[in-house]
Amino acid sequence: MQKLMVDFIISLDGYASAEGWPGFWGLEGPEYLAFLGEDGENQHTTLMGATTYRLMHGMLADAPEDPMADMPKVVFSSSLEAPLAWANSDLVTGDAVEAVRALKETSSRPLRTLGSLSLSRSLLTAGLVDSFRVVLFPVITGATGSERIFDAYPDVALELVDHRLFDGRLQLLEYTPTLLDGPPGDGS
Q1: What is the pTM of this model?
Q2: What single string gives the DSSP state of each residue in the chain?
Q3: Neighbour count for residue 184 (Cβ, 10 Å)
Q4: What does the pLDDT average to over 86-104?
């Protein structure tokens, strides 16, 4: 059975993006970019929703070289239509949780989300997430932040399994998640 990792980049105050800020809040450095290009980092199937698909495909369509062109991508959407324009992208219009449950059983590659906040939340709530990774960017985007990542999430205990510092400022934190039935210590 393949593993599923939820993978986010976040500001210190928990936002996925912010109005007027560049991608990666303008803080991507050579160590972090090298990490993104390492062997193994691109040896997975990427799962995403329609909003992330539109954003990423639009951003990379004009790039001189699309680093995700050869990567298998599964897009969950009821608004997009097949065939998708981005190379190696398959559209799933049915239930995402059931589709990912099946992918975990049949895929030849590990699975990883890209952004896709509601998709990631539903997969975590369904108990399908094996690891949870965030790269914390040292910015607070309280005035301009959009897409608070953890709003409407269930309570989750996280066990730290890996950490790394990039470029002296970006902190990677990888956890194994455990869904909680209630607050810790309440006897639930």
Answers
A1: 0.88
A2: ---EEEEEEEETTSEEEETTPPGGGG---HHHHHHHHSTTTTSSEEEEEHHHHHHHHHHHHTSSS-TTTTS-EEEE-SS--SSPSSTTEEEE-S-HHHHHHHHHHH-SS-EEE-S-HHHHHHHHHTT--SEEEEEEES---TTTEEEETTTTPPPEEEEEEEEEEETTTEEEEEEEEEE-SSSTTS--
A3: 8
A4: 96
Tokens linked to 110? 């590990």
Q: From CA 41, how far away is CA 143, in angstroms rounded?
A: 33
Cβ count within 10 A of residue 135: 20
The pair of three-digit structure tokens given for residue 44, joined into one six-digit string:
């997975």
Query: Phi first, then psi: what are they for 57, rounded to 5°?
Result: -65, -40
Six token digits for residue 21: 């800020």
Q: Dihedral through CA 134, CA 121, CA 86, CA 23, nearest 10?
A: -40
**Closest by CA position to 6, among listed 177, 187, 186:** 177
Contact status, residue 174 vs residue 162, Cβ threshold 8 Å:
yes
Name the CA radius of gyration of the chain, rounded.
17
Q: Is the pLDDT of residue 60 over 80?
A: no
